[in-house]
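[audit] Reproducing an earlier prediction to check determinism. Same input, same settings, fresh worker. If the tokens differ from the archived copy the diff job will pick it up downstream; this log only records the rerun itself.
[audit] input (168 residues):
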Amino acid sequence: MAEEERGEGAETEKYPYGEYVGSRDDNLDRHGYGSALLPNGDIYEGNYRRGKRHGKGMYCFRNGSRYDGEWRKVCLGLKHGFGQMQYPDGSRYVGHWRKDNKHGNGIYHYINGDNYEGSWYKGFRHGLGTYVYIKDNVVFYGLCTIHLHYSIINLGTDQNPDNSFYFI
């Protein structure tokens, strides 16, 4: 994940950090619905709570990435809850986030047509999941640890016409 996609532009300012149009509270913090054009060129439109992104909102990164989903103030205005991230290469993730990381259940669609659907932990595939390799017509189903796969495989090819499963 590119650095620009984590810890998006700062929004702790009172005025000098970008342009903001929207609701403010009595302390002039962003509060309620609004939109911000940040100094780095990123754009956020959505809900704020006491100066931080909170609730539903869409963040458009200058590199072409876009996140549409939930944010939480207590997590410093980071992606937290359910949302969809579209990456500049055309891949996308739809699922749960925690403190700016894929975390919980979700599906990642790769640009080559492959996809992984299952559990995530701190941004990594971790737990029960299914990985589909479209080109090879191979499906892995099983448990992943952060960098290892312990899988049940369904080859689904001419060499395996009964679609039987094997444990690897």
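[audit] rerun output stored. Observation attached for the diff report: Residues 3 and 153 are 35 Å apart (CA to CA).
[audit] end
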